Every structure is written in C-alpha cells, then in structure tokens.
Amino acid sequence: MASLARLFQNLAIKPLVNDVRVIAISSISTESLARVMNKPKPGTGKAYRRIVHYPEQYTVEPLKVTNLAGRDPETGRLVAKGIGGGIKHKYHWIKWVRDGPLEGPPQVEKVIDVIHDGCRTAKVALVAVGDELKYIIATENMKAGDLIKTSRFIPRIPVRANEGDAYPLGALQVGTQINCVEKYPGQACHLIHSAGTYGTILRKFGELVVVQLPSKQEFAFKQTCMATVGRVSNIYHNKTPIGSAQKNRELGNRPRSGLWHRKDGRHGRKIRKLPPMRVVAPPSDPAPEPITFTLKL
Hints:
Elements: H1 2-10, H2 30-37, E1 50-52, E2 65-67, E3 107-116, E4 123-129, E5 132-137, E6 147-150, E7 166-168, E8 177-179, E9 199-205, E10 208-212, E11 218-222, E12 226-229, H3 245-250
Antiparallel strand pairs: 1-2, 3-4, 3-6, 4-5, 7-12, 8-9, 8-12, 9-10, 10-11
C-alpha cells in the first residue's frame, strides 16, 4: 500500500491542450450557407408535356388538354427537346380516394366500362355507386359488370378480398398483391399506378404494415391506409415494342438530332491505336536439384 501511495503522489494531471471549448470555430461563408438553405423542394418539377384544364367540381366528362411539346407554358422556351408532336388525347379524371364505410358491410360498386386512356399507361374503369360515377385505375382482370367492394373497417380476422376491392392494409392478408396505396390515411392514393405494377404485403407489426413496392423497397404504412387488391392493368405495356418510327411520333416522342450514328459520326465507334506488342517470355528452366555429399568418418 505504501508503494501505491508513493506512485499516486508522483502523478501530476496536466491540463488538456486541445480543449474543445477553446477551439476556434471557422466562419461559414454566405455562399455555402445559401446552397444548404435554398435547396429546391422535391416533387415540384414539371413534365412539360401537357396541361389538363380541370373544372371546379369532379366530373367524368373527358377533359380538354393543351399539349406543350416540351415548352415552358410561361416563357415559351424549349425545355425538353425529346417531347413534341403526338396525338392529342382527352384526359379522364381519376378519383384517387377510395372511400367506404367505417363499420358495417362494405360499399358495393359496379364497373360500367373499362377503357384505354391515352394520357396514362394503365387502363381506366368507369365505376358507378348509387347516383355517382367516377373513374378508377383498372386492375388486371377487371371487366364491365364486375362488382367491387370498398370499406375502411378493419376486422379482427383478415378479409379474403377479390381483385378490385379496396380495404385498409390492416384488413388484408399477408402476401396480398395491392396497388394504389395511400401514403398517409385520407390522402390520395398516389403509389403504384403504372401499368402492370403491384406491391406485396410482407408483414405486420403493431400499427404498421410493411409493403414491398415494385422497386423492391420496403416501406411501413399505417394499417388504416387504403389499398386496392390486385395488379394494375395492361401488364404487357413494358414488353410491347413500339414497332416503327411513326408510332413513336404518335406517342409524342421527338426524334433526336441525327448526329448520332452507331458506326460513324459524332458518337460512333472510336478508332483507337492498337495496344503495344507484348513479348511473352519463355518458361524458365527448372531449378537444378541440389547435390548432397556424405562423408563417413
């Protein structure tokens, strides 16, 4: 113990040289601060393809469209060079909110017709409920005369939903294919709209439901978020070739400048010098075996 006491007496605590309280803080330039503070918000981009003239109230009448051909509607300057021409299509206003009763039996709706919409990749279904008509995104096997159900009630046992039915995520079974998912309860269904796409319910925990999107990313939504059962219609959209240059113009795609050529031209194959000749050395001779001598004494 005496040796330990002498050891502690000899120790001396030195003050910290690099104290964080006395480190000089470098000033932040105004330019770097402006780059951080004035970042553009996501989701405010423009497609510069068309302007849809929406009326004040919802209607199933086809809406008029103004094609922009890749130009800014305010300045008239060409912004997107790849857009231009094309057939002008009427726009069918989709009612994105599938609303139903909070308790009791589900609301039954009848599909009047399934039509093709030139302004989107998926087909559109005209649905009637009571004295109301509305457009929804059609599922893969939906046809005229089908009866679909809509409900916001979450039962204790998951329901066995048919294709086209709309239920909360908490009311559906694990492994169900869905589309038109609400990101937040009560908002418009703005996830999984493209032709042939679908999401899959993977698991549930607590008040959340994990859904795998078409991009294979997994997101957890509240169990009260509405979703439509099934796969979006027009499943062969991404596998059908355009077929001709004229069809591509009808779709509204403007051809490129013409300077690009595969074999020659501006972006063609590059004629490069051959790499220098490489001399391959012959294999080396095997090492001679060592000769050992013994001497008997």
